[in-house]
Amino acid sequence: MTAMQRESARHGTATAGPADAAEILARAQALAPRLRERAVEIEQARRLPADVVESLRATGVFGMGFTRDRGGPELDSIQQTEVIEAISYGDPAAGWCAMIGSDTGLYAAFLDREVAARMFPTPDMVTAGLLFPHGRAERVPGGFRLTGRWQFGSGITHAEWVVSGAFRYRDGQPEPGPDGTSPGSLALLVPRAAVEVIDTWHTTGLAGSGSCDYTISDVFVPQEHTFTFADILGQPGVLAHPEVHMRNMPGVALGLARAALDHATRAALTAGRSEDYRTQTVLADCEADYAATRHGVYGALRRQHDVLAAGGTLDDLTPLERTALPLSRRHCFRTARSIVTRLYDLLQTSAIYQPSPLDRWLRDSTTMCQHIVAQDRILQTAGAHLLGARPSFPLALGITPLPR
């Protein structure tokens, strides 16, 4: 029995064995009511309690991106999004951590297969960290010395590995990127024990995600523990593409919005407002937005999956098809916030007290919309791609520099 399994046993759970998509989704749906019961505790702790982490681990969510040859279930991006949606229906902070933690198997595609097998001996290990290059990686024999400070380490308090983006240096001088002019960067993986967490996570919402700042000080990182999204070193497939780690993100917003709609509907029925015109129209309007938004997300995911599963690449998508996924993702986050805001207004004073889940969901949806995937930079990126111009965030489209 591994240390991880022993820890799970202490909390009355077990590390998830091999499971298919239906089983993992069923486990996530079964866990959601328990997460809802713990939501206030999770928010007040500003991190996920250890037993909640192990309950998530037992669903199989953290390992769902690992390929079958690595002992994982190899859920496609549609199935992953459904699982994140189910968990977020219980608690968005738990869903956010599940979404981030499940990236471990996705990163493995960009690492040498034998190296990844040694780093991740079981397919339920959690990775946290920030991919944007904020650190300094000084090239040394055999790898890099990494130093820096990063924000938004969601789930870092229960992670086994931390991934961090950094600019490359050699002999104190910046190394150029593939185009020869822009700074070169890469992502580096270090054990959680080599990271100092700084308790900065006092926020409007998503408090339970524990997305603290962290620092790494002159830590040696072997070359084989680094990667770029331009280099696929593992098994090719529908999950081995540069933007794969963004695909399941809308599941958090969709789960939150569905929870808010169900709560508001029950509250209206309990209050005897089923014949009230305003209640009827607001609920119907929000349901319409939810249905259209969810259809847009899953429709874009399915079209992408069909092309990739047939052996195609992201370049085989039309410009409209390629921009559909990041645009639907941004729209999803913004629409979830709009739905919660309208329902908050509908329920009036009953919604303002912090024990009300609508108060928490209002703050959670506001915070998640500050993420880059919900910002106007996505609009510029998509619009530029449609016009044949230069996108400011090409990775959202799966566009990377040439391999190093």
UniProtKB/TrEMBL annotation:
Keywords: Oxidoreductase. Residues 252-375 form the Acyl-CoA dehydrogenase C-terminal domain. InterPro entries: Acyl-CoA_DH_C (IPR013107), Acyl-CoA_Oxase/DH_mid-dom_sf (IPR046373), AcylCo_DH-like_C (IPR036250), AcylCoA_DH/ox_N (IPR013786), AcylCoA_DH/ox_N_sf (IPR037069), AcylCoA_DH/oxidase_NM_dom_sf (IPR009100). GO terms for molecular function: flavin adenine dinucleotide binding; oxidoreductase activity, acting on the CH-CH group of donors. Residues 32-106 form the Acyl-CoA dehydrogenase/oxidase N-terminal domain. It comes from Catellatospora methionotrophica. The keyword Oxidoreductase applies. Pfam families: Acyl-CoA_dh_2 (PF08028), Acyl-CoA_dh_N (PF02771). This is Hydroxylase. The keyword Coiled coil does not apply.
